[in-house]
TrEMBL record:
Keywords: Signal. InterPro entries: FAD/NAD-bd_sf. SUPFAM superfamilies: FAD/NAD(P)-binding domain. The keyword Nucleotide-binding does not apply. It comes from the Eukaryota. Residues 1-22 form the signal peptide. It holds the Pfam family NAD_binding_8. This is FAD dependent oxidoreductase.
Length: 466
């Protein structure tokens, strides 16, 4: 035998070994009893939507297992606990819409609610964080009926993207142009910087994404204290802690899906802290952001690959910083001094805002490119130093960082061309395809709307699993 021949013989043996292994990983008999998990439904992702689905299935008596990458439930709901005082600070999800869906979920999980206050009282100071200029006479615009009149034109965006065909051209206009076309200058600030956690280049976003996320529910949350609720102990993670305690036996934490076969029911190979498990279920419920990075292990076919590859999210970060030397009674708000509608250029911090922990500030940071924790924190230190120059506060203080959250991919979106080409009807057509259901933030963003949409979908999912 020539060496070349030898090599190819080895190659075939390797191929055989590889294909035998690929076959084996979905073979139930290759797993010990404790590593084989058989349920009606597998949920992947234990944030707002996945946890809501788990409680719903539990209460329905439908068996499930939930796979979560982190060591906790709650996803973008993140809560810091001050080690010395025990005070809790929500630095991700702040508030929930005061509707029956939210109240019932808090009540189901035994968490008392209260009206929302965004941290302790503080007086806003408007500063251009880039140039370090104080803007003493800046007055932020408030939301007017001019915006509501436009919003009311598109009720089909309130709960998702059930779009008419063709999609109205106005909805594809960059938001800055929409503001100009419909003279929304008075509401410009409130629809951009002034709304909850807005990511991305706010004046360039297609109008469709502004109306979908800054929808009647979100507008209502911003209107008055009775319209937005929080956990009464300022610990929005409490619902997720209680859900975990109740459902623990059916939740795999610190676990990720490494391979999937959804051709006949659902089989997922999951890496867990105690080794690989095979999950065998009838239906798969996805409470994750279905971007390709997350979806590749699920064994996508060409149709799924082509649709999901169009989705992108924005980089968005949150953190808590102490020992800043800044004034505890001041909300430092970033304003573009000479940008269009005073919207700051990216990347930028939205604000530094005092929390219920003395001396601690919350910040949110929006970027166009993925940014590391070290980069965000060094930008925070540089910005805080600029604020000292203006405010005359204690510049010798060295900031210390208490918490950090990476929210990439936030606010999933596709290009305007893809919207025109029917992305959203294609995406809806994937519901149930290959026994797979999409419940995470994609059609709506806010927690109460995700919960409502999940509640609306569960009967269909349960029926498909029976
Ligand atoms: C800073 C900030 C503030 C916000 N404020 C509010 C607010 O006040 N009110 C409001 O209603 N909404 C708010 N939101 C929106 C909020 O993100 C949504 O309401 C909600 O948390 C999204 O829920 P979800 O279940 O879709 O995703 P997430 O909460 O992100 O949950 C996804 C879960 O899936 C897990 N996961 C991801 N990928 C994988 C994988 N490959 N394998 C396994 N697990 C995976 C994650 O670890 C996470 O636990 C805010 C968002 C941000 C970023
Ligand atoms: C998950 O991982 C974290 C961090 O490594 C660890 O502290 C925690 O105990 C783990 N939880 C489980 C259930 O494995
Ligand atoms: C929430 O809405 C209910 C019903 O409208 C109302 O009774 C309550 O005062 C509101 N606020 C809070 C904090 O529950
Ligand atoms: C300024 O901050 C430093 C470091 O935190 C501290 O030691 C000092 O006492 C502060 N000075 C004043 C005037 O507050
Ligand atoms: C829940 O969704 C249904 C169907 O889209 C809608 O009619 C209803 O108003 C929603 N309820 C809440 C509380 O948002
Ligand atoms: C479970 O959900 C299905 C589908 O909605 C419903 O028909 C059934 O009555 C529910 N069962 C219980 C015990 O709630």
């Amino acid at each position: 035998m020539s060496p070349v021949h030898n090599l190819s013989a080895w190659g075939s043996i390797l191929c055989l070994v590889a294909s035998a292994w690929a076959f084996d990983q979905f073979d139930e008999t290759s797993y010990t009893a404790e590593n084989l998990v058989k349920r009606d439904i597998v949920i992947v992702g234990g944030g707002a939507s996945g946890t809501y689905a788990a409680i719903g299935l539990h209460d329905n008596g439908t068996s499930f297992v939930l796979v979560e990458r982190n060591g906790r439930l709650g996803g973008q709901t993140e809560t810091y606990k001050d080690p010395s005082s025990g005070t809790t600070v929500d630095y991700g999800v702040q508030a929930y819409h005061n509707d029956s869906i939210s109240r019932d979920f808090f009540s189901r999980l035994d968490v008392p609610i209260a009206a929302f206050t965004f941290g302790p009282p503080s007086t806003p100071t408007y500063v251009d964080f880039t140039s370090g200029t104080l803007l003493p006479s800046f007055v932020p615009g408030s939301l007017g009926t001019d915006y509501i009149t436009q919003l009311d034109k598109y009720p089909y965006l309130d709960d998702g993207f059930l779009l008419p065909n063709p999609v109205p051209q106005d909805l594809l206009l960059p938001w800055g142009q929409y503001i100009e076309k419909y003279s929304l200058q008075d509401s410009a600030w409130a629809t951009t910087v002034g709304r909850p956690a807005p990511p991305g280049p706010l004046l360039e976003l297609p109008a469709i994404y502004v109306f979908n996320s800054f929808n009647p529910v979100e507008v209502s949350e911003g209107e008055g204290r009775d319209n937005a609720i929080v956990s009464a102990s300022n610990d929005n993670s409490a619902i997720y802690v209680n859900a975990l305690a109740e459902l623990e036996a059916d939740i795999l934490l610190n676990s990720t899906v490494i391979a999937g076969d959804r051709s006949n029911g659902v089989k997922l190979v999951v890496a867990t802290p105690t080794g690989n498990k095979l999950i065998v279920a009838k239906q798969l419920v996805l409470g994750i952001h279905p971007v390709l990075d997350n979806m590749n292990p699920f064994g996508l076919d060409a149709r799924e690959q082509s649709i999901l590859s169009k989705l992108n999210g924005y980089p968005y970060y949150a953190g808590l910083v102490s020992n800043t030397g800044l004034s505890d009674a001041t909300l430092y708000q970033n304003v573009g001094a000479d940008t269009e509608y005073n919207v700051p250029n990216l990347p930028c911090f939205s604000f530094f805002k005092p929390t219920f922990v003395q001396g601690q500030f919350l910040y949110w940071y929006s970027a166009l490119q993925p940014t590391t924790q070290a980069q965000v924190e060094s930008a925070a230190t540089a910005t805080i130093n600029k604020l000292h120059m203006i405010a005359g506060t204690n510049v010798t203080a060295v900031p210390t960082f208490d918490a950090f959250a990476n929210h990439l991919p936030f606010h999933l979106h596709v290009s305007t061309q893809d919207i025109t080409d029917g992305f959203y009807s294609d995406m809806y057509s994937l519901q149930g395809y290959h026994n797979t259901w999409y419940i995470g933030a994609l059609f709506v963003i806010g927690s109460s709307q995700l919960w409502n949409n999940t509640a609306n979908m569960l009967p269909q999912i349960i029926a498909a699993a029976s």
